[in-house]
């Protein structure tokens, strides 16, 4: 059979990628007619699956089991699954950052621009990224590249906010009530859905709002056995300056505190008594946050926003008073971006440079931590100084990487998945 221009190669009996993993014994079939559009899609996926190394299953890890026991509840099953599929990278003395990926639906703009989907999520865990060959690019016609990633969980575009919260963050909230620090941060390109995931909308509240509601609910349920107090602060890092979002004024200086780690001097701490009160404070803070339209996102967050909730629990143990303190940090990072994707000519370029500087500093820290280097360059940016605790300290940390399905954002998506994949290897000691 004469070879076809599209090199339509498929594996026999392969079925959809969710059906089974590829094996060496798969046969190759060549079409004797030009493939239909649907077949072309399968070819792309097949090429993608073929290029994926098959991960060996690893035994469940002791550290993960330990964490499963200490956290209790839902995260147990999730961690066990991670251990089984070999994506986990913890040792017997520590835990590691949990990494989740969330795919957003295709936007109207992307549809109008003729975008095609280049991301497929299978079994709520595996992410297949495919570089689609351009129809006009004859030289690259046959070069269809793909990669496979595996995370603690991956959320398809139809996933509800409540599911994202319960899978990624609910156990962290429980940990905070037991005196363990927790951090959740969203990472991704501009317009990929970070603010939607963290803050959400009035109808579909995001992780920040759901976490606060859950926290108050849990505190109320336990109010019979001690006293809880909840304090919160909300700040942004904009152009390498730290600003209080709850009482805007002069920029704040960062200083090191032996007990609390890096703190913003003079940051307002509000004592909160109800969810409604916190919602009002959040709304107020968000109005003060720096957002501007870029070419990619009409309400792009130009700053990194950090909401910190400190829960203090006092109870009597015999004749002495015991105090437990847990801190929950919820972070909406500004989007990583190519200058060309936003607007190079204005104030945006300075912001973009600073945003990229912080994110570059973040990637340097991730690299240093993964490689076990003694010196981690936290001081290279305000963002990494503030994240020091969450990345390298004693903290349960969750990263949610947000991605767009559009092939027009292929480069950004690849970049986000690369860093998310790397972050999986960061160990923490809780
Ligand atoms: N899961 C989702 N479901 C529905 N709409 C979404 C989802 N994720 C994002 N969107 C929509 O996509 C648009 C861009 O999302 P968002 O503002 O959250 O991006 P971002 O990553 O925070 O961008 P930036 O870094 O520029 O601030 C918004 O209109 C948002 O409502």
The poorly predicted ranges are 1-22, 26-35, 41-93, 338-344
Number of helices: 12
Structural class: alpha+beta
* Count of the domains: 2
Question: What ligand molecules are bound, each kind once?
Answer: adenosine-5'-triphosphate
> Mean pLDDT, as a whole number?
74
Q: Examine the secondary-structure arrangement and name the CATH architecture of the largest domain.
A: 3-Layer(aba) Sandwich
In total, the number of strands is 20
Let me know the CATH homologous superfamily of the largest domain. Answer: Kinesin motor domain
Q: What is the beta-strand fraction?
A: 25-35%
| Ends distance | 61 Å
Pfam family, one: Kinesin
GO cellular component, one term: microtubule
Organism: Aegilops tauschii subsp. strangulata
Protein name: Kinesin-like protein
Key features of this structure:
2 domains; binds adenosine-5'-triphosphate; 20 strands; disordered N terminus; P-loop_NTPase; 25% strand; alpha+beta; three-stranded antiparallel β-sheet; nine-stranded mixed β-sheet; single chain; Kinesin; nucleotide-binding; 430 residues; microtubule binding; coiled coil
């Amino acid at each position: 059979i004469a070879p076809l221009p599209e090199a339509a190669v498929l594996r026999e009996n392969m079925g959809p990628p969710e059906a089974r993993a590829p094996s060496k014994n798969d046969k190759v079939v060549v079409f004797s007619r030009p493939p239909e559009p649907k077949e072309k899609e399968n070819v792309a996926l097949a090429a993608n699956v073929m290029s994926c190394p098959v991960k060996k299953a690893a035994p469940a890890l002791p550290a993960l089991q330990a964490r499963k026991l200490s956290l209790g509840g839902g995260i147990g099953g999730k961690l066990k699954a991670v251990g089984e599929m070999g994506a986990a990278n913890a040792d017997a003395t520590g835990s590691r950052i949990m990494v989740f990926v969330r795919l957003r639906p295709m936007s109207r703009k992307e549809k109008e621009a003729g975008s095609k989907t280049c991301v497929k999520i299978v079994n709520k865990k595996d992410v297949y990224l495919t570089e689609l060959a351009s129809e006009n690019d004859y030289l690259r016609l046959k070069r269809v590249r793909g990669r496979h990633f595996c995370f603690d969980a991956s959320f398809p575009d139809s996933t509800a906010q409540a599911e994202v919260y319960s899978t990624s963050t609910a156990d962290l909230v429980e940990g905070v009530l037991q005196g363990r620090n927790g951090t959740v941060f969203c990472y991704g390109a501009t317009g990929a859905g970070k603010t939607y995931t963290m803050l959400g909308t009035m109808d579909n509240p995001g992780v920040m709002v759901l976490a606060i509601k859950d926290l108050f609910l849990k505190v109320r349920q336990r109010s019979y056995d001690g006293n809880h107090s909840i304090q919160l602060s909300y700040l942004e890092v904009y152009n390498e300056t730290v600003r209080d979002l709850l009482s805007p004024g002069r920029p704040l200086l960062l200083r090191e505190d032996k007990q609390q780690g890096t703190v913003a001097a003079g940051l307002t701490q509000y004592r909160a008594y109800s969810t409604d009160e916190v919602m009002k404070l959040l709304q107020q803070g968000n109005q003060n946050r720096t957002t501007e339209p870029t070419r990619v996102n009409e309400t792009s967050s130009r700053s990194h926003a950090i909401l910190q909730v400190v829960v203090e629990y006092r109870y009597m143990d015999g004749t002495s008073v015991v105090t437990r303190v847990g801190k929950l940090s919820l972070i909406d990072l500004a989007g990583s971006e190519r200058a060309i994707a936003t607007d190079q000519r204005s104030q945006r370029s300075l912001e973009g440079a600073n945003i990229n500087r912080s994110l570059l500093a973040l990637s340097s820290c991730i690299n240093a931590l993964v490689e076990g280097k003694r010196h981690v360059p936290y001081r290279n940016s305000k963002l990494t100084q503030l994240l020091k605790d969450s990345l390298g300290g004693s903290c349960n940390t969750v990263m949610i990487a947000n991605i767009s399905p559009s092939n027009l954002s292929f480069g950004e998506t690849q970049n986000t998945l690369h860093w998310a994949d790397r972050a999986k290897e960061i160990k923490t000691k809780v």
